[in-house]
Specification:
The structure is a single chain. By secondary structure, the chain is an alpha/beta fold. The chain has six helices and seven strands. It has a seven-stranded mixed sheet, with helices on both faces. The longest helix has 24 residues, at 103-126. The protein starts with 18 loop residues before the first helix and ends with a strand. Bound molecules: S-adenosylmethionine. The site of S-adenosylmethionine (SAM) has 19 residues, from loops. S-adenosylmethionine binds at residues 12-17, 42-44, 46, 63-65, 133-135, 151-153.
């Protein structure tokens, strides 16, 4: 039996969103990516990097699971996708059904993203497009990317990564960026604002960053309509 009041994952779900979902989650227009070097971290089995690359954007994904072989990653992500899809059908009340029509539609998006990622992963890993990395430490030089995107990890898993981890990870994402860091969502898996959000914003402000909370034209987890932006 699963708990009805929260969306459960063990560890971190190895699932991913599409390029189109990324644009909506981060309130981006395709033109805003043109000519920029973009980091997606953690990228998981999202197809943002693959599609952005097809569209001529210099995009790189970083994630702990890029240590895994393509076969191991394919097995795990298909398992996680099915488990998430099953829970979605049971817990429709935790979500807003406007971007996705139904649990079946949402499942199709998950499938499209991860299958596109899995096609791109073997060659992309060789080409340096998928880089194994474990936050809060990234294997990139300072200012390597113009824009850094971080979706469905920080704040969402606030029950298993503590406040210090969040701060260190956000500082690290900012270290490798020249222009902007965007983080979405700002709620935990229980759909409540993350316990680490207020403290992180206050500390980042005292350190000279200018964190801002901005609305995005996307909502799936009820109430998750905002991202954190650091303009550097
Ligand atoms: C739910 S997925 C998000 C994928 C993608 N950003 C999206 O929104 O579809 C969370 C990802 O965080 C990765 N992850 C967990 N701990 C990590 C760490 N310390 N450093 C980097 N990635 C990590 C997991 O491997 C997983 O792929």
């Amino acid at each position: 039996m699963t708990d009805e009041s929260t969306f459960e994952v063990t560890d971190c779900a190895i699932i991913g969103r599409t390029y189109e979902e990324y644009l909506a989650m981060f309130g981006l227009e395709p033109a805003e990516l043109e000519g920029r070097r973009v980091l997606d971290c953690p990228s998981g089995v999202a197809s943002f990097v693959a599609t952005a690359t097809d569209r001529g954007v210099d995009a790189v994904g970083a994630d702990v699971v890029y240590r895994w072989s393509p076969d191991d990653l394919a097995d795990r992500c298909r398992e996680d996708r099915e488990s998430v899809a099953e829970q979605l059908a049971e817990k429709t009340h935790l979500f807003e059904w406007s971007y996705y029509d139904s649990p079946t539609d949402r499942r199709r998006y998950l499938e499209r993203a991860s299958e596109r990622f899995l096609e791109d992963y073997p060659d992309g890993r060789e080409a340096g497009r998928y880089v194994p990395a474990a936050l809060p430490s990234l294997p990139f030089a300072e200012g390597s990317f113009s824009l850094v995107l971080s979706a469905h990890f920080l704040f969402l898993y606030d029950d298993r990564f503590d406040y210090e981890f969040h701060l260190e990870a956000i500082r690290e994402l900012a270290r490798v960026a020249t222009d902007e860091v965007r983080v979405y969502p700002l709620q935990g898996l229980d759909a409540e604002p993350s316990d680490h959000l207020e403290g992180s914003i206050t500390t980042l402000e005292t350190e000279g960053y200018e964190p801002a909370i901005e609305s995005v034209p996307f909502e799936f987890q009820s109430g998750s309509t905002e991202m954190l932006v650091l303009r550097l």
